[in-house]
Write a structure and sequence with these properties.
By secondary structure, this protein is α/β, with parallel strands linked by helices. It has a single domain, classed as Rossmann fold, CATH 3.40.50.720. Helix content is 48%, strand content 14%. The chain has a 7-stranded parallel β-sheet with strand order 3-2-1-4-5-6-7, with helices on both faces. Helix 4 runs parallel beside helix 6. The longest helix is centred in the middle third of the chain and has 29 residues.
């Protein structure tokens, strides 16, 4: 049986790296999609770091806000692997925080485009081949702030909430075709960005989390890997909360 191909958008970031590694550990041929402002050398350096740690992960450039760039990314993946995409992880996203009364159209549009439109661009390109194969996994990375809302994040919360609406609708369309579609909603995860927050603020945040700590990128990667498995074929349209009990619903 040929090795299944997994594509992770935003794959070279902190969360993306953990997802890529977990999928590789699960036996997938993994491709990390990246934009990085067109910094191809940075992506190659990331790839070399993974190799030093024993992970042979491919990289493919693509601007998820641009349909043509996404199509070029998918072509690159297919050329490199000799296969269509079996697992798509829509992980790429941005924030442009600010109180709504001061929020500009640009702040709103950039976040909706990068976090929500990107799912249309990427998923539309892989869903038909998945249906034709009779097997596929689409996993969309949302956020606890989609579930509970967050001060200063009307744009981000709206986009991330839209992700799960997309998940539930598409899951119904492809359920009988062997394709599952699920959402993963992380809480506060100890990425490099979070680690830069002042220790006092980190402690304040942790005090609101029932388990008393931040999550790790590896815990999110494990959830994505679990949903990608053959044995997870009865799970579809679900929103998997990985937030340490911060928000229960």
């Amino acid at each position: 049986m040929s090795q299944k191909v997994a594509l992770v958008t935003g794959g070279t970031g902190g969360l993306g790296t953990a997802i890529c590694r977990s999928l590789a550990d699960g036996g997938f041929r993994v491709v990390a999609g990246y934009n990085a402002g067109g910094n191809h050398e940075k992506a190659k350096a990331w790839q070399e770091e993974q190799r030093k740690d024993g992970y042979d992960i491919l990289v493919a450039y693509g601007d998820v806000t641009d349909g043509e760039s996404c199509a070029a990314c998918i072509r690159t993946v297919e050329e490199m692997t000799g296969s269509t995409v079996d697992v798509l992880v829509n992980n790429a996203g941005i924030t442009r925080d600010g109180q709504f009364k001061k929020m500009s159209w640009e702040q709103w549009d950039e976040v909706l485009t990068a976090n929500l439109d990107s799912m249309f661009h990427m998923t539309r390109l892989v869903i038909n081949p998945m249906i034709e194969k009779g097997w596929g996994r689409v996993i969309n990375i949302s956020s606890v702030n989609a579930q509970k809302g967050q001060f200063g994040q009307c744009n981000y919360s709206a986009a991330k909430a839209g992700i799960h609406g997309f998940t539930k609708a598409l899951a119904q369309e492809v359920a009988r075709k062997g394709v599952t579609v699920n959402t993963v909603s992380p809480g506060y995860i100890k990425t490099a960005m979070v680690a830069k927050i002042a220790e006092e603020i980190q402690q304040q945040i942790c005090s609101t989390i029932p388990v008393g700590r931040f999550g790790t990128p590896e815990e999110i990667g494990r959830m994505v890997s679990f949903l990608s498995e053959e044995e997870s074929g009865y799970i579809t349209g679900a929103d998997m909360s990985v937030n340490g009990g911060l928000h229960m619903h």
